[in-house]
Target: Transcription initiation factor TFIID subunit 5
Amino acid sequence: SDADSGEALLGRGTSAAAVAIGGNVATVATSSPGVAAVAAVPPGKGEVCGVDPSSAGTPGMWHSAPCLRVSSPSSTMTHSGDVIGGAVVVEDQPDVSAVLSAYNQQGDPTLYEEYYSGLKHFIECSLDCHRAELSQLFYPLFVHMYLELVYNQHESEAKSFFERFHGDQECYYQDDLRVLSSLTKKEHMKGNETMLDFRTSKFVLRISRDSYQLLKRHLQEKQNNQIWNIVQEHLYIDIFDGMPRSKQQIDAMVGSLAGEAKREANKAKVFFGLLKEPEFDVPLDDEDEEGENEEGKPKKKKPKKDNVGSKSKKQDPNAPPQNRIPLPELKDSDKLDKVMNMKEAARRVRLGPECLPSICFYTFLNAYQGLTAVDITDDSSMIVGGFADSTVRVWSVTPKKLRSVKTAADLSLIDKESDDVLERIMDEKTASELKILYGHSGPVYGTSFSPDRNYLLSCSEDGTVRLWSLQTFTCLVGYKGHNYPVWDTQFSPYGYYFVSGGHDRVARLWATDHYQPLRIFAGHLADVTCTRFHPNSNYIATGSADRTIRLWDVLNGNCVRIFTGHKGPIHSLAFSPNGRFLATGATDGRVLLWDIGHGLMVGELKGHTDTIYALRFSRDGEILASGSMDNTVRLWDAVKAFEDLETDDFTTATGHINLPENSQDLLLGTYMTKSTPVVHLHFTRRNLLLAAGAYSSQ
Model:
């Protein structure tokens, strides 16, 4: 089926599932990641607090146009799989009014304030050890009781309820409460996706068994059925055995649009190790034997070849099987590039607290057309900028100029057998430092060079991802799948595959030679704002405006990790070079560190005062660099941040994380620009740090 009407997905389970992509949604897409235009399908009813929801249906996606709905018997949050052309499984589209009708079972509207204040009084008077955990109920109950009053047209009671209790909610829900305060009539609810999210995705609370029993007993004694109904209908209480968590432990993990992740969501095995480097003989060319080649590189010594072999023989026990997903074959040019990479690595500066990197900052001046994306090639030879005027501009940052391949007529005159054929096919008349690529019809929000530097990806507000040739500087393909702005795109570290994420709340996996996506990753409750491949290319991380980070398995499309803890939309992701850890940055100015294998938050780096748009680990993973809208680059001691981690089974089972308050000990340096927000960071192969941003005169 074509991209406008939807794509079918075949899951690994027994039933086929399909995800909606087409259709007209009533909201207008804005030019910045905001509230998205697709919400989730109601999960199966009958899910009881604390009971494994495997019997329930799976939240998928909702659309106001006739389209498709995900249905699957699995207990994971999302479901997706292979695209199969033509075959589409259609189910009835849930009607918005049906989604909202759950609010019909109303109590006496005048008693809502009494119910809520009664529960509030009970929780505030309970023992300290239970109070922090039970306080998590305030926000979801407040939202659902307010919506129930609005839905049943008790507008004055709803207004009074909101005014009396909205000040009690945690500060990180302020943005959501602002949206909520604008919903004062039943008609408003039908077109509002945020509201539908509250209604359709169960809010997850993680509470110890003792606290839960206390709550249950109180509600049953008081015969407070209204609150008990909401708890059963709209909340998912994930009960664990053991000590209740402290306020500090809870605060670290909450704040997302749908509460915390269920513990089950982070149990799946993840192969976070690196793939074995392919073995190949390093050919000694004439230049090497003469001593130095044209770029002044030293002569390659024979033992180097043995090092490559010995290094690649060690198989990482946590690595995925080599053939778990098909990866492209290494071309001769790739092998040559790997050799160059190894030579550079031999000269790499070993970074650490005593040896910080030099930072080279590329400032875009006069970028009145709005710099919206930057990327730098792995060998640091080219830099690309995506701009709000819909252009993509590529610069050479070495003395070597950018040249296009000659026309077909000129190519026919070239001797194909000559040694310097690759030089001869380039047209000197086209040489320039800058090439401008035209094609998009909206701001360009994401750019990514292919590892072999032959291709460039760009994604835009126009809903397309474009693949450009860096040989001819022309557009080769326009990939159409997203119907709304695409906020980010990235090539796999092995090339061939790439990922995109956008305002339609889904991420898509593509291959350069397929015009339809291979996988559709559905599950986020708001825009997918950033995407990153794991170094072994078997997993993709996505960050979203729903304040969660998800890790997806490329092989089967399953969501294998959900990380909650950020208090604002996520804007940057970086995997450590060894594949074990993930760093994430958001509008809350915090960098959070995650252990992928255990599915745990292991650190929090505080210091930035504005959105973090760039994160990058140094080549050997000793240093983490972060760049922010606060006009600073900060360097953090990654080795120290990840040593002595508490990842025992108890911590994993209950989420009793104890984050060390050592941000200041880990901060190695802060470097201010004059007035330039930092939007991209890149470590060269020798560990020089390159940063980029557009000068802002305000």
Q: What stands out?
A: The CA atoms of residues 60 and 70 lie 5 Å apart. Residues 359-410+439-642+665-694 form a domain with the Methylamine Dehydrogenase; Chain H fold (CATH 2.130.10.10).
